[in-house]
Amino acid sequence: MRFLMKLALDSVAPLNTASRYLPPSLPTDTVSTNDLRVNPLPRRILQSLWKKIIAINNLLVKNTPDRNLIPLIKATTKIEDGIVSSDLTGQFVLCVGGRAKLYPVYRYLVETLGGKLMTFHGNSMENINQLHELLTYADMVICPIDCVNHEAFFTVKHYCQCSGKHCVLLDRSQVATFQNGIRTLATMNARKAK
Q: Alpha-carbon distance 159 to 15, whole Å?
C-alpha cells in the first residue's frame, strides 16, 4: 500500500503545500532564520502561486509527448498485431526486478524476438549505481512492479521519462504479463523504426 501511495504522490502535488513552508507558531510578517530576516509572502499569494504552478504543470502533462508516458501492462492487455516486423533484433532489454527463477524464461522470450536480456534484481549484491550503468547501456526497459524495490522503480521511471527510452511497467512478474510487455516493447521499437 505504501508503494501505491508513493506512486500517487510522485505525480501529484497537493494544493495546500504552500502552508507547510511557513511555521505555524511564528508570525507571518517576519521569520528569523540564522540571523537572516526573510519577509515571507502572505499565504493567499503563496496559494495563488501554487495554483498557477499546478495549472502550468497540468498543461505540460497534457502536452507531453508520448515518449514520456510509460504504459502499465497486464496479462489481459490487448497487444496490436498489425505490425508484422515487431522484433527486437540487436536491442538490449533491461529487466529491473521480477522473479529471479523466471529469468531463464524471460531471456528465452527476448531472444526469440532477436534481443538480448540484461537483468537487475536489486538484491544486496547489486547497488543502485549498477542500475544507472545498465540503464545507460540498455535500449529499452521492462519493470515488473510487484517484485522490485521502491528506489529501483523510481530510478527507472524517472530515467526513462527524462531520456525518452522505451519502457513498460508490468503489474505482475508472471510469464504471460512479461510476454505482453516484450511484445509492447517490440511494437514501440517497430514504430520508432518507421
A: 26
Q: Tell me, what DSSP letter sits at residue 40?
A: P
Contact yes or no for 179/66 (Cβ under 8 A) = no
Class of domain 67-193: alpha beta
**Cβ atoms of 78 and 150 closer than 8 Å:** no
Higher model confidence: residue 19 or residue 12? 12
* Helix ranges (DSSP H) in the chain: 2-11, 43-62, 103-112, 128-137, 150-163, 175-193
- Reading across the β-sheet that carries 140-144, which strands appear in turn? 72-73, 166-170, 140-144, 92-96, 116-120
pTM for the model: 0.64
Percent of the chain with pLDDT over 70: 65
Listed by start position, the domains of the chain span: 2-63, 67-193
Rounded to an integer, what distance in angstroms lies between the CA atom of residue 2 and that of residue 13? 17
β-pair partners for 93: 117, 140
Q: How far is CA 77 from CA 50, 134, 144, 177, 192, in A?
A: 37, 28, 14, 8, 21
**Pairing between β-strand 31-33 and β-strand 116-120 as defined by DSSP bridges:** unpaired
